[in-house]
Design a protein that fits this description.
8-stranded mixed β-sheet, 25 strands, UDP N-Acetylglucosamine Acyltransferase, domain 1, 6-stranded mixed β-sheet, Rossmann fold, 2 helices, alpha/beta, globular
């Protein structure tokens, strides 16, 4: 990421994680935090001033640091419509293959692994300690929660949540909008919008 000013959008818990990653990975960057909560105006997040409103910064280089998939997508699309750009953030303690593809607005947290020829879609999150193995696809606006594991060539559609510690066996496909519960082991394909829990995973 260029050593220029850019904006972290959001000032909640996930934004703390993203901002910390930025401070470690891009020490030369000028950071700004934006949020629409008036109670947070003039406060700080990890030493960076929080400014309002979000709309005033949409035309700039932004990373939308919101854990909620729908909110992250909505604000990211507003950034693009305003002529801004979506910046990806990769923690320096993440292991990302030079043969992987990371699209704009994605976040890769500390201790995450993104293996060769994996693809991380726009605005997706690969959180702490998650593993996205070779040839996997993570769709736009999805969240791979801490400690989740995607076996080789597994596929996750848009706007999915793969819960903490969940495991997708190699080649399994999870369609758009599905939720995989924490600790679930997914052994077969999952339909769009389904909720899967348990070991082995079953649709609720």
């Amino acid at each position: 990421m260029p050593t220029e000013e850019y904006v972290i959008v959001g000032a909640g818990g996930h934004a703390k994680v993203v901002l910390d990653a930025c401070q470690r990975a891009y020490p030369g960057a000028r950071l700004e935090v934006r949020d629409d909560d008036p109670a947070k105006a003039n406060a700080t997040l990890l030493g960076v001033a929080i400014r309002t409103p979000i709309a005033a910064a949409l035309g700039r280089r932004c990373h939308v640091a919101m854990g909620d998939n729908a909110a992250r997508r909505r604000i990211s699309e507003a950034v693009l419509q305003a002529g801004g750009a979506l910046a990806s953030v990769v923690h320096p303690a993440a292991q990302v293959s030079r043969h992987a593809a990371i699209e704009g607005g994605a976040f890769i947290a500390a201790a995450a692994v993104v293996a060769p020829q994996a693809r991380i879609g726009r605005g997706a999150i690969v959180n702490h300690g998650a593993v996205v193995d070779h040839d996997c696809e993570v769709g736009a606006w999805s969240h791979i929660a801490p400690g989740a594991v995607l076996g080789g060539a597994a596929s996750v559609g848009e706007s999915c949540l793969i819960g903490s510690g969940a495991v997708l066996l190699p080649g399994v496909r999870v369609a758009a909008g599905a939720t995989i519960g924490s600790g679930a082991v997914v052994t077969r394909d999952v339909a769009a919008g389904a909720v899967v829990t348990g070991v082995p995973g079953r649709v609720k």
